[in-house]
Amino acid sequence: MKNIKQSWYTGRLLWINLIFFTLQLVSTNIYAQNSNTLIDSIQARINRQLETYPQEKIYVHNDKPLYVTGENIWFRIHLVNALSHRHNTTSLYVYGELIDPIGNVVDSVKIIRRNGIYTGHFKIDEELADAVYTMSFYTKYMKNLGEDYFFKRNIIVGGGLSNLCHIEPTFQYENDKIEINLNFIETQSNKTFVPEELRIRNKKGQLQEYHTDPNGLLSLDYPSSKDNPLTHIYLEYKFDKKIRKQYIQVPSISQDYDIQILPEGGNLLKDITSRVAFKAVDSNGLGEDVTLAVINEKGDTI
Known about the structure:
The protein has about 300 residues and is an alpha+beta fold. It has two helices and 18 strands. The model is unreliable at about 1-10 (pLDDT under 50).
């Protein structure tokens, strides 16, 4: 009798386990189906968003990084779909701008796609000042998203006098004022010279005459603050009976800097040696020396 009861109990227990296992299997399958449905739904919404508001990417090849005034900047544009990286884009035209150091557009182009290729050029005017210029390319769709989506690249433009003479600037900051010293140097002899003529653009956009001391040194004082920084000086001076036009970049007085933390996988594993990269740049876009520390939730440096 005892064996019969035990056998009945054991069989009932097996049935209960079997039912529980079956229910668990069914619920897992339903969860997996729901999970797949959710993923498919999210993917479908993303695809509809990209179809309605397509995102595009641009990459540009230009023929060289340094140009002389009067030359052309030749380039080829690659316009692709941002998701597939294929040339199945909506835009037919790409717009390009050549921008001077203070934000003025000195040349602009509208390039149409021909045989799947965008090619064109900027014309560098012979009267253009020596400086670092920015090439900017975008489509109308990209313009709706903001300039962060534009393709940009800096190039150097120099005139015929750029190899014969140059300016060595120094900067001193004091409160909201900046003192700028300009030394005019003849490149071949590395000696200072006194320009025959010298004009500097003031805040009103007018060219004002200046004179260096007998040693070819000019000292200038400008107001400059974080809210109203001085970024560039435009000047014209005569050397060897020719006029050179030039922009001089003024370093920022801001002490702000930007740090990007770049963990390899986004998270770190406990008890595993990991390497975390970081990038630190100052307000001028140059590398900055910084010291970083890893701190836990209790504020302890580890």
